Amino acid sequence: MIETRNLTKRYGNLIAVNNINLKLSEGDVFGFIGPNGSGKTTTMRMIATLLNPDHGEAYVCGKSIYTNQEDIRRLVGFMPDFFGVYDDMTVIEYLEFFCAAYRIPGSKRRKICEEKLELVDMSFKRDAMVNELSRGQTQRIGLARTLLHEPQVLLLDEPASGLDPRARIEIRNLLRRLGELKKTVIVSSHILPELADVCTRVGMIEKGNLIVDGNVAEVMKKARQRILLNIRVRDRVEDAAKLMEQCDTVEAVSIGKDQLLEVTLKPNVEDYSEIPAELVNGGFALMLFREEEVNLETAFMELTKGLVQ
Ligand SMILES: Nc1ncnc2c1ncn2[C@@H]1O[C@H](COP(=O)(O)OP(=O)(O)OP(=O)(O)O)[C@@H](O)[C@H]1O
């Protein structure tokens, strides 16, 4: 559906996007994560044929961005991070205007607009003036606008920015639905945890380089050099800590808040089944035993060096 090969864009001496290789299939929801200025928008604009690369290729549904720009624009819905709206237009008029721009026949426009308004939960504002909407409502109308021509591929640049927590959850549900509808979606964000449970894949970009690309679990695994365990025993915490220190797989043990044992395993240790066994055999009453989760935020900090251009 989307493929890039060594996609590169320079602005003078600055390499905004550096040799990016991506391959996304139907139904993939790809979370494109990176700090300000890392190259997310530039990458999306090249895929949307709005910007020419200096080097490399990109294909959308097998069509090259160099030779099939018109076809690609029909296949792609691009939602920029900021977009203007017009004065003196109601929401429904605004959407119908874009239907006309997409050459959707007049007889079908109203129905399509109503459907998309419903999808983004904005039917109640259909007759409001489009320039009088809140930021979050404008974002939702922008998303409805992006979906009007039933694009197969969606490029959404920070669709959740400026939205309240409830609207963010709704956008997440919408992204999930788009994946289920077999659309291919690239969605950018710097709000990392937001994407973890919606995306089928994530890529982290820094200084124009795609540092990691894989499914969420793979990325987490890559980020986690050492497993950290949280253990609680009913009593004799210090003794339990000493016992843990003697285990071959354990690198360090500390006693944290509320007497919680924090056990760091040696690098690349994956099987830690001996630990609960040792505790139980040692006569300790095990109250809690869990592996600390690596969230996308931690993964990003681990995998990047904070080199923002
Ligand atoms: N038209 C331009 N001329 C010169 N430099 C540009 C231009 N557009 C972008 N850049 C630079 O390219 C780099 C990548 O910018 P880009 O907008 O792709 O980042 P981004 O990851 O989308 O950032 P943000 O999260 O802030 O939207 C930045 O350093 C930016 O300053």
From TrEMBL:
Residues 2-232 form the ABC transporter domain. The keyword Membrane does not apply. One of its GO terms (molecular function) is ATP hydrolysis activity. The keyword Signal does not apply. It holds the Pfam family ABC_tran. PROSITE patterns: ABC_TRANSPORTER_2. It comes from the Bacteria. Gene3D superfamilies: P-loop containing nucleotide triphosphate hydrolases. Keywords: ATP-binding, Nucleotide-binding, Transport. Belongs to the ABC transporter superfamily. This is Putative ABC transporter ATP-binding protein YbhF. It comes from Fuerstiella marisgermanici.
